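Could you help me review a protein record that somebody else here produced? Do not assume that whoever made the record got everything right. The record follows directly below this note.
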Amino acid sequence: MPRKAKELSAVEVKRLEHSGKGGNQTVAVGGVDGLLLQMTPVNGRSWLLRCKIGDKRRHIGLGGYPDVTLAQARDRARDAREMIWQGIDPVEHRKANRAALVTAQRRGLSFDDAMERYLEGKLQEFDNDKHRKQWRATLDKYAIPTLGKMLVADIDVSDIKRTLEPVWATKTETASRLRGRIEAVMAWATVAGHRSGDNPARWKGNLDAILPKPSKLAKVVHHPALRMDEAASWFSDVQGREGFATRALEFMAMVAARSGEVRGAVWSEMDLDKAVWTIPSERMKARAEHRVPLTKETVDLLKALDRLAGSEFVFPAPRGGELSDAALSACMKRIHAAKPDKYLDRQSGRPAVPHGLRSTFRDWVAERTEYPRDMAEIALAHTVGSEVERAYRRGDMVEKRRAMMAAWGHFLRGTQDE
């Protein structure tokens, strides 16, 4: 018959010490078969249960001493032996419980916390601070009031519908972007293990069954553009005005570039000898470098500019920084105010805006010239062709586009027949 260990008291356990020789040492404390106090050479102490589980002998940790008292260690040892008797491995049972706890904690993430954790990485993709603010602002304004405190694991299609419906018909474009951003947050929560199942914010095969299609609710509102027949008159009015913002607007019209590309232009991007403006990829909407051929008149405009000391910008603001988008818009408004019956969009009747100049250029190419469509699209820095086509077409037609931009310049000045 196996010899039973003497049942030590709490005081006797407290007095136990390592012998000072060798590594870890164990002492049977009795009360439960196999219950040991393990002592390290540096006087660390913990409880172990020596037992047999199936065909294997195991030492199961029961916690550290004195955080776990002798009485508590005996209770834990009895519970473990009862589980073994029932055919349950206490170690595997403990692991499963810990995994369930971690899963429950992950699934307990609220939408506002999920949004913050998702945005930590997502917002780094944007170079433009305006885009970063727009992403957050849309979610803060429209999603957080209804979804913010809900657990991502509990959000379903009805919750998304309830969030989108107030703005779906009245602010359709904003609502459509909001849906996509909610979908992105929910997708992150699923991949990160905080929820499971289908994404309730998915459009196709999901929300499209209960919400009207955005295209059926609101037509795209285009930027008001100059009528082609008024382009020369408008351009003459621009040339008759002073200021960096006005010169930026004149330059923008001549090269058919975007406002941000012109306002952010720095002298290091300009090669006046080769008459080429190279815009780096990080400043382009399509994130690809874009070369703009400069005509003689465009180069002359640049050479005539007074360079502002301490500023790298071609068209600086009064204090040397980058011009604001509002500065160019203000120029357009002043020109229209001087002739309120002119420079109106043909379809909407609204006053033309800077971005609309690109539409006027595109209409001119299509209706008044024989230049290829792709050449015009490349000039506007639009993505042309499929991914495979772009992989094989490495050129950007910069020299061919030079002739097209020269012809456009003649059209703006009203000298195309000279």
